[in-house]
Amino acid sequence: MLAADDVLAVTGCFDEMQFLSLSMQWSPTLSDIDDDLLNTLLTYWSDLPRGPRLPCSSDVDPVNFKSALGHVLLLDVEEGGWDYRYRVFGSSIAARAGFDATGKLVSELPVQPMAPFYLAVYRACLERFEPLYTRHVPPPDIQVTSWDRLALPFEDGEGRINRFLVGMVPGDWRE
């Protein structure tokens, strides 16, 4: 559904999961994103040398986006693209989420229904070979009012996506 850009079907699934809203933008530009941190990551990704289709994962150097590190996830593609392992789980994200997922698979996350949503986002990017920007209002039991996420795919130099750089910016704390 995400890969097909079927927003209505995705919104229907969100309703079942108690999400309050979702917006998404494939291949976002700087003007599509109103967050400086996410725009820093998008600019970094856009300026990297390309493999056949995308920037190469071997060129990722966190020194170039130090100001964003606390809000960054680095994930490796596992199980043929059906799961993803966190190499890096940013400290600011961990503090806001209440857990650190470094070394864990997305499918092992302690928050539901967020894990299936994250899996769907990465799988859709894998199928489309495009970055995806999303803003969603999570279920009421999640501590923040919203999350802005930018999923940036990287390839292995031979045209296969093998890693994601994801920026996550939380909204306000819920009362």
Describe the model.
The structure is a single chain. The protein is an alpha+beta fold and 175 residues long. It has one domain: Beta-Lactamase (2-Layer Sandwich), CATH 3.30.450.20. 25% of the residues lie in helices and 26% in strands. Strand 5 and strand 6 form a beta hairpin.
Structural features:
Beta-Lactamase, six-stranded antiparallel beta sheet, 175 residues, alpha+beta
How far the N terminus sits from the C terminus, by CA atoms, comes to 33 Å
Q: Please tally the helical runs, counting DSSP H or I stretches of 4 or more residues.
A: 4
Give the CATH H-level superfamily.
PAS domain
- CATH names the topology as Beta-Lactamase
Q: Give the topology string: H per helix, E per strand.
A: HEHEEHHEEE
The CATH class: Alpha Beta
Whole-angstrom Rg: 15 Å
CATH architecture: 2-Layer Sandwich
- Overall spatial form: globular
Question: Which class do the helix and strand fractions yield?
Answer: alpha+beta
The main sheet orders its strands as 1-4-5-6-2-3
State mean pLDDT (0 to 100 scale).
88
Residue stretches low in confidence (pLDDT < 50, at least 5 long) are: none
In helices, the fraction of residues equals 25-40%
Instruction: Please state roughly what percent of the residues sit in beta strands, choosing from under 5%, 5-15%, 15-25%, 25-35%, 35-45% or over 45%.
Output: 25-35%
